[in-house]
Amino acid sequence: MRRREFMSLGAVGAGSVLLNGKQISAQVRNMDIEEMSVATMSAGLASGRFTSADLVSTYSTRIAEIDKKIHSIIEVNPDAPAIAAQLDAERKAGKVRGPLHGIPVVIKDNIDTADKMKTTAGSLAMLNAPTPKQDAFIVKKLREAGAVILAKTNLSEWANFRSGQSSSGWSGRGGQCRNPYILDRSPCGSSSGTGAAIAASLAAIGIGTETDGSIVCPSSINGIVGIKPTLGLVSRSGIIPIAHSQDTAGPMCRTVADAAAVLSAIVGTDQTDAITSQASKGVADYTEFLKKDGLKGKKIGVLRQYFGTNERLDTLMESQLQALTEGGATVVDVAIPNFGKFGDAEFEVLLYEFKADLNKYLARRGGPMKSLSDLIKFNEANADKEMRYFGQDIFEKAEEKGDLETRAYRLALLQSKVLTQDQGIDLAMDKDKLDAVVAPSNSPSWLIDLVSGDSPTQYVGSSSYPAVSGYPNITVPAGFIADLPIGISFMGKAFSEPTLIEIAYSYEQMTNARRKPGFLETYV
Q1: Which residue of 213, 276, 377, 399 has the smallest Cβ count within 10 Å?
Q2: Does residue 166 have an active-site annotation?
Q3: Would residue 214 show up in a list of annotated catalytic residues for this protein?
Q4: Rounded mean pLDDT of the chain?
């Protein structure tokens, strides 16, 4: 594909013809779908410049042509055109559900949809599982908001909790997802497909899930914004689990404004997920906190313990800290005692909860896979397809664990929470009366290696403190190292999303660090 042919997918002029031979409707002419924000898209729908059906058609064509190289999409929703047409009819009749009305969204393939798409966590073992009886709660919320569920995205199989030697972004069902900035580089896991798809403008907005880093890492490494919400703000029901003490879903978008709009749509109390009784601590509309002067008067602590692994990264981060100061924030260095000492306890918790939570999910879902033990046997019987690159050592370790009344589990859970909450983020923020803590989100992405698995050098794991504590984390594009995106993370106490959005949006508007991938010019 030549560059000029690709550009016809992004900016369509009068008389232009798509590569699959279909002509775009008159309403879409001169529409640059690449990088289009939710606000711009919503305004175009409101004015009649184009329809939701036009958007679905255009994105579907982009997926068909561009995703051959990225492998970010597992399955396109066959009902998306009909859903879009219905939403267009509602708009024409004067019914508009909100800012996401008619906007296409892609969601990770571990989130239940009661439709013609499958929900498999990327595993061949789940291909014959029954269709979920109902949508995941967050899917229900998105549909109520008028979003069009366009596709399921690829992921690290079982949300990257099958083997310690896995390759991020690989699944038995979807193959190896690739970073759209440089295609031989990792997209990071486990919400790799969502990150890559949104970066390449294969949808307007995306949903990922995180246990530890799986929203933040693929967002930052693919040059987009990711919000990992406070545990309890967003329902976990209908999402294939790893661990209930850390799991959450969240927005992955190209801008803070888009992410805030999506977060507003998916927050809510779910009667089937008791922890969301805390969702009332959230707010109805997070877009109210999109303030250009949001840095003014804020006091932000720099977690220096995440510096010193990569000289070029440190240099880039120092320039971004200066930007925070120029925006009106006070920046001070902070340190957490017993830094990083919770890792063993966290992993122990994940092993226990994974077995318990996954067995519950599979029992509700029904079908041939009824337990983690069944999945292990399936992988052994289908090793040529499922284990040709890496094994299932984490599965096997989890299967050996007892129930959640086991003393070892309860002690590990207490230790991991105390070290990341009371003696972690809370301690650092209270000591210096901080509004947020800042750290680099990631180092430059590493080469994809299906033989040895992920082998990132100088990796920055700053997502772990907010992930284990259950506190919020927002990553925003901060710049590039050798054409690879770098993100900056803003973290805070529980339910501090409004403050973090103010900071993140103000920083984003000052720096404008994001740029779209140019991968097609080099690799296609």
Answers
A1: 377
A2: no
A3: yes
A4: 93
